[in-house]
Amino acid sequence: GAVLPVGALRLAANAGESFRVPTLIDLYYPGFSNPNLQPERSRNLDVTLQAPNLLGGLSLAWFGRAANDLIVYDQNFVPQNAQHASIQGITATAHSRPLHGIVASLALTDLYQAIDTSPGAGDARLKFQPTVQATLGLERPFIGGGPAFGIRAQIVGPHIDFYSAPGGGSPAIDAYATIDAYLRLQLAHQAVLTLRARNIGNEFYAPIYGYPAPGRTYSLELSTR
Question: Which residues have C-beta within 8 Å of that of residue 181, sequence separation ≥ 6?
Fold first, then answer.
């Protein structure tokens, strides 16, 4: 990795290799697993242009990944190795300057390429890879002894989950948007009470087809940091 100052901007780049081994569930869970799975290996590259002094900070990043033996799921939801896969995307982020301590943020990811490049695969789109994702937020950190709070909206674009009938059929496509909020109170110097409300709109969606997410939920957390 390297970072290069360009006037008031900053250019960062990273290159590396990674691997991921199949889990015990991937290999041995009855009725689901594939004991012939191989570890996936990939070459990764990302380049980011940052403007830390513009508004509250702006950045634009490109990332790419070339993978061998990528672990993916077939139409029966059984893990398989995709011989070769190519993933590329662009991420843009923006933060506003604080206004009464509140910061607005926007993050947008366009995964314009996520394809199976194995021989005979026909450059098919990889499943569980939405084309566009966006996050909007309004947050206030701990300042001036007051509480911290925030609200975030996540928008996930359509993506192919799997073929609804074994051996073929129409692909199941799911897009959804959710809103989460939190309130944090500092009870003592190193004690924080947090109340979280997830999926405030009680949206029904399934990040993976057949596995619906819970509706509106609340949680209460006590932490020492």
Answer: 149, 150, 151, 152, 196, 197, 200
pLDDT in tens, 105-128: 999 999 999 998 988 888 888 887
Question: Would you give the DSSP letter of residue 153?
Answer: E
AA letter at 62:
W
Two structure tokens written together for 220: 């209460």
SS3 for 16-78, per residue?
Answer: EEEEECCCHHHHHCCCCCCCCCCCEEEEEEEEEEEECCCCCCEEEEEEEEEEEEEEEECCCCC
Contact between 195 and 220 under an 8 Å Cβ cutoff? The reply is yes
Label residues 96-107 b or e (16+ Cβ within 10 Å = b). Answer: eeeeeeebbbeb
Residue 167 DSSP one-character state:
T
Query: What single letter denotes the amino acid at residue 66?
Result: A
Q: How many CB atoms lie within 10 A of CB 144?
A: 5
Q: What is the pTM of this model?
A: 0.79
CB atoms within 10 A of CB 84: 15
Greatest C-alpha distance within the chain: 61
8 A C-beta contact, residue 130 and residue 157: yes
CA distance 200 to 28: 38
